[in-house]
Automatic annotation (TrEMBL):
It comes from the Eukaryota. Pfam families: DnaJ. It comes from Alexandrium andersonii. This is J domain-containing protein. Residues 69-112 form the J domain. InterPro entries: DnaJ_domain (IPR001623), J_dom_sf (IPR036869). Coiled coil: none annotated.
Amino acid sequence: RNSMPHIKKAVDVGVANSPDSLISGDPISPRALSKELQQVRKGATKQHLLQVSNPKMLRKELSRHRESSTLAERRRLFKDLLLRWHPDKNAGDEVRAAEMFQTLQEVKEWFINDE
């Protein structure tokens, strides 16, 4: 016999696995949960992209991100990357910043357009 029926019930009705959801028993639709997970994944991807410091790796990650993001998300991310790698914002690491900024300029049209 299940010693924690509230947990089984929560899983059966598609409730998120957060402690609050398990206690309240509020159901979350699979679609809403999926959308929430996608947002978490995109946030993690954005943070990862902002940490990439190799031009070749940046191109690879941008390619992956382009396939899974909307145009608006890509434009927002691109702006954040330009600000992150602008040579004036990277005193002491101008050479790498210039390489990354140059890479961003080279992929700009491809990344921020739907063509």
